[in-house]
Every structure is written in structure tokens, then in C-alpha cells.
Write a structure and sequence with these properties.
This protein is an all-alpha fold. The protein is about 80% helix and about 0% strand. Helix 1 runs antiparallel to helix 2 (about 30-50) and helix 1 packs antiparallel against helix 8.
């Protein structure tokens, strides 16, 4: 139950962070948004160090650094994906992709998938097709570029979660600190190399920083949940985060989707729920 609640909290925090990050990336180049979000996340994790402790062993540093590289890619790809929109279609696609790899890793490590999980995986793939189709007049259909970015973002998120899970369980918040320091360095280096392409727009500082803080909270809750439960279950429950993004996108941006895509979203919810039963 503790792992379930932590995973649900992580899901909610990720959904809100993604919405704010996506909005921020609409106001300025995505790298400008990430340049604010990543250091804000690092600041939160440094504040948690005295409270939760940190042990920087070689294994922790290696897995933390790997998660940081994946995190930098996830930040940029996801915020760019959500900036293109529509959020209420692309966010679930990203979530389903991000759930598949951790489930596979969990199974390879000896965790078992029940009959519900064996039904849930094909349903998840069907949901991706339905959500991505968007046929019919007035439908909000994502572009091919947006879909490719969504799949890339999902893969990067999955790798980040898997790498965090591999870190030693007694390392405290050290994997998060290491990962965020690396992702911040990668982001700043990329921004320096591409500074002429970033444009003159200033980032939405408060919105971007809030996205980074929420992302840091989400990572912490996921790490704690994964340490007290199975990766296959925790990762999939965490993948429910589009619910928060979709609700905010509908309420704030008035985004609408076609009936067939609503069926896809419903199928995605069923698939994620079945996988959680594993």
C-alpha cells in the first residue's frame, strides 16, 4: 500500500510538471525552459540531502549519472512534445512507451506478470494506435514529428526510471543528486552549443522552475516506491501521470479530442490498470 500511494503521488507530480513544462516550452525555446527546470530540480534534491541522507558509492554514481543523461533527454523531448501538442493525446502515448521498458526489465529480473498483465500489454499497444489516429472532422491529430518525439520522450523517461531503480537501495537521494547534476550540465552544454538557435524569447522562469521542482518530487516518490515495491507495478502506476496533464490541458487550454481518441484514452486507462494488478 505504501508503494502504491508513493507511485500515485509520483504520477500526480509528473503530470503537473509536464503540463507546466509544456506551457513553458511554448513561450521560449525548449532548452531555455530546461535550463531553468533542471537546476531548480537539483536545488530541491540538495535540500533533501540532510533529511534523507546520501551515500555516493561507485555504483550510485554510475547509475545516477546514467539516469541524468536520460533525464536531460527526457526533459527536452517531453517539453518539446507537449509544446507542439495536443497535450491530451501525446502525453498518454509517452506514458505507455515509458511503462513498457520498466515492465520488461522487471520481468527479466524475476518479477512475474499475471494473466491481467498479459492482457494489459496488448491493450496498451492498441491504445497507442487509437490515441494516435484521430480520424474524423474536427479531430485534434498529432503530427508525425510530435508522435516521434513522444515515443522518444517515453523511451528516455523509461531509461531514467530503470537506471534510478538499479542504484543501491541504501544510497538515499544520492542517485537523484548525481543524476540531476549530470542532466543540468548536459543541458547547459547543449544550450551553449546551440545558443544562436535559442531565439530571443526569455523563458517563463516561474513556470519552468515549478516544473523542475515538481519533477524532482516525482522522481523522489518514484525512487521510494520502487524501493518498497515491484518495478513492474510501480512504473506502470507512475505512468498514469497523463491523467493530470490531460485534465489540466482540458481545463486551462480547452483542448478537445475525437471520440475515437477518447476510446483510446479509456483503453490506455484499462491497460495501465490491468498491468498494475501484476
Amino acid at each position: 500500500m505504501i508503494a502504491l500511494l508513493l507511485a500515485l503521488g509520483s504520477s500526480l507530480a509528473y503530470g503537473c510538471a509536464d503540463f507546466l513544462g509544456g506551457l513553458g516550452a511554448r513561450k521560449a525555446h525548449v532548452l531555455r525552459t530546461v535550463m531553468v527546470a533542471a537546476p531548480a530540480s537539483l536545488a530541491v534534491e540538495l535540500l533533501l540531502w540532510p533529511v534523507l541522507g546520501a551515500s555516493f558509492s561507485s555504483g550510485t554514481l554510475a547509475w545516477g549519472a546514467a539516469s541524468g543523461v536520460a533525464s536531460a533527454a527526457a526533459f527536452a523531448l517531453l517539453y518539446r512534445t507537449l509544446a507542439i501538442g495536443p497535450m491530451n493525446v501525446l502525453s498518454p502515448v509517452t506514458a505507455l512507451v515509458s511503462a513498457a521498458l520498466p515492465v520488461t526489465v522487471g520481468l527479466l529480473q524475476g518479477e512475474h506478470l499475471t494473466a491481467a498483465g498479459l492482457v494489459g500489454l496488448p491493450l496498451a499497444l492498441l491504445a497507442v494506435v487509437l490515441v494516435s489516429a484521430g480520424h474524423g472532422a474536427g479531430a485534434t491529430r498529432p503530427s508525425r514529428t510530435a508522435l516521434l518525439l513522444a515515443f522518444g520522450a517515453g523511451a528516455a523517461i523509461a531509461l531514467q526510471l530503470v537506471f534510478l531503480h538499479q542504484a543501491p537501495t541504501d544510497s538515499g537521494v544520492a542517485p537523484l543528486i548525481t543524476g540531476r547534476a549530470v542532466s543540468s550540465a548536459v543541458t547547459l552544454a547543449a544550450a551553449g552549443l546551440l545558443r544562436r538557435r535559442l531565439g530571443p524569447e526569455r523563458p517563463a522562469y516561474a513556470m519552468s522552475a515549478a516544473a523542475g521542482v515538481l519533477d524532482s518530487v516525482a522522481n523522489l516518490l518514484f525512487l521510494l516506491a520502487a524501493r518498497s515495491g515491484d518495478l513492474t507495478v510501480v512504473a506502470v502506476i507512475t505512468a498514469l501521470y497523463p491523467a493530470g496533464t490531460v485534465l489540466l490541458a482540458r481545463g486551462v487550454l480547452a483542448e478537445r479530442i475525437h471520440r475515437g481518441q477518447l476510446v483510446g484514452l479509456g483503453t490506455a486507462a484499462v491497460a495501465v490498470s490491468l498491468l498494475a494488478l501484476t
